[in-house]
Amino acid sequence: MTIRKKLVAGNWKMYKTLHEADAFAQELVEYRDMLSPSSVDALICAPFTALCGLGEKLKQVHVKLGAQHMHEAEQGAWTGEISAAMLQDLGCEYVILGHSERRQFFAESDEAVAKKTCVALDASMVPIVCVGESLSEREAGATQTVVSRQLGIVLEMLQLQKAKGALDGAFVIAYEPVWAIGSGKSSSAQDAQDVATLIRSLVTATLGQRAGEQVRIVYGGSVKPDNIQTYVQQPDIDGALIGGASLQVASFVALVEQVAALS
Ligand SMILES: O=C[C@H](O)COP(=O)(O)O
């Protein structure tokens, strides 16, 4: 049986100045021992302005560093954008791609997300590819159709490009129903598991058995310390992507502790 390491990933979104991010890392020192369970990867995806220097500080408390977005081009005239190499320079091991807020407010397309996924893997970063349906899509019974479309393009491109790591499942897929993000209305664990099963079967069908077994699938949407276990106990859910509840040290540490307690 494949053992997939659990992932507790905080997405700070557009919160925390450099000073606030440093203070968070400093406060984590007190919890250092709780943040290094062998069964869990703890990760913070910080705003671009806080990335410089944060990786080193987080490393001391066994927390990895990630970014929330990147451009697919190697370099060029893309005002305001950031490349994979630039993120690597800053010590990012992970990058969130295709978050619903990027899709909704910055018109990020499925194709762009697919290209970025290949670029991130080529740069040896772990992409966290976000998929999920809106409320109206859910009410129309289109959850599986939407997730299959969003992911289908990514998987086809990974297969075509034989992207490094993809066949070993060295990437993460986050199922985040849009209506559950920041709303306090989380998906039922069973519904999340059903979508995770679909996602794993899509990965297996396109990239093969090994990729399907290895890919980590996480749930996101109003996850808190008191409900994270219900998701991570599901057989196809390997962790969580957390917004609001990752912003306070006590809550972030509690999320990691809750997941570590399951193993
Ligand atoms: O990336 C994280 C998600 O958007 C979830 O955010 P939330 O935990 O605040 O609902």
Automatic annotation (TrEMBL):
Chief location category: cytoplasm
Compartments where located: Cytoplasm
Pathway: Carbohydrate degradation; glycolysis; D-glyceraldehyde 3-phosphate from glycerone phosphate: step 1/1; Carbohydrate biosynthesis; gluconeogenesis
BP-aspect Gene Ontology terms: gluconeogenesis; glyceraldehyde-3-phosphate biosynthetic process; glycerol catabolic process; glycolytic process
An example Gene Ontology CC term for this record: cytosol
Active-site residues annotated for this sequence: 99, 176
Keywords: Cytoplasm, Gluconeogenesis, Glycolysis, Isomerase
SUPFAM superfamilies: Triosephosphate isomerase (TIM)
EC number, as in UniProt: 5.3.1.1
Gene3D superfamilies: Aldolase class I (3.20.20.70)
Reactions listed under catalytic activity: D-glyceraldehyde 3-phosphate = dihydroxyacetone phosphate
Binding-site residues, substrate: 11-13, 182, 222, 243-244
Cross-referenced InterPro entries: Aldolase_TIM, TIM_sf, TrioseP_Isoase_bac/euk, Triosephosphate_isomerase, Triosephosphate_isomerase_AS
One Pfam family hit: TIM
Protein role: Involved in the gluconeogenesis. Catalyzes stereospecifically the conversion of dihydroxyacetone phosphate (DHAP) to D-glyceraldehyde-3-phosphate (G3P).
Record's subunit section: Homodimer.
UniProt name for this protein: Triosephosphate isomerase
Gene source species: Sulfoacidibacillus ferrooxidans
